[in-house]
Amino acid sequence: MKTARGALIEVIAVLATVVIFWVPLYFVFVNAIKNQQEASLLNLSWPSAVHLWDNVAEVVKARDYMLIRAFFNSAALTVLSIVVLVAVCSMAAFVIQRRVSKATPWINFFVLAGLIIPPAIVPTIWVLDGIGLYKTMTGLVLVEVALSFPFGVLLYRGFMATIPREVDEAAVMDGASGMKLFGRIIFPLLQPVTATIVVTSSVGIFNDFTNPLYFFPGARNATVQLTLYNFQSQFNTQWNLLFMNILLITIPPLVLFLIFNKKIVGGMTAGAVKG
């Protein structure tokens, strides 16, 4: 009885996955290879003629090759944000986990509050403009890091709790300073969690729409998600090109996620169970 019930639950889970993930992906793909007239019907039928490469070329050439500039901007934003995020979160988690004091509960409270409190757009713009970082890549990187900081700290801290303090003490007795202890001994042990944060945060930052829209405006500053506006208008939306654009900007994070799927699950499980 239990075996049959378990098999039924697995079948339902697989069907739900197909409906939630694969059907929308097929919908995007099949409409991306249609011409404008057939794509305007917005159905799941196969096109009478495949216009894959014609649509790809038109999307890439749109608005003076904006998609290529957008890929460069998104790649630069993602790489810079991940480098800063990993460095800041790992060091902050190391200090929070190792130095327990009366302020520790308050620090934990503020870290958790970062997961709950939504970002304030207008005050953030006012602050960035006041320090001269509004409409700059540096300002947008700081915003992305700030929004991903609580999640990264929690994962690092949970995994770091599994590293015995005797490792720290032995390194200090051998003359290692604080930075040397962290950089050469502790940080290399954090590879599972680092891989998890790199992949999950990369996908989130690469696919971010609202933050570049608010904090990094301008045609030359467009990221991949903002190129969706190229084929939308009030009176005539080019659905085939819009879906082709969605398909092109979906492929990189999808491939990244599929390649590192096991590392993501392993890192999050290690941090949750061992912490």
UniProtKB/TrEMBL annotation:
Subcellular location: Cell membrane
This protein's name: Carbohydrate ABC transporter permease
Annotated InterPro entries: MetI-like, MetI-like_sf
Membrane topology recorded in Swiss-Prot or TrEMBL: Multi-pass membrane protein
Transmembrane segments: 7-29, 70-94, 106-128, 140-160, 181-206, 239-260
Record-linked PANTHER family: ABC TRANSPORTER PERMEASE PROTEIN MG189-RELATED (PTHR43744:SF12), ABC TRANSPORTER PERMEASE PROTEIN MG189-RELATED-RELATED (PTHR43744)
Positions of the ABC transmembrane type-1 domain: 71-260
Family per similarity comment: Belongs to the binding-protein-dependent transport system permease family.
Keyword Cell membrane (UniProt): yes
Key words, A-Z: Cell membrane, Membrane, Transmembrane, Transmembrane helix, Transport
Database matches in PROSITE patterns: ABC_TM1 (PS50928)
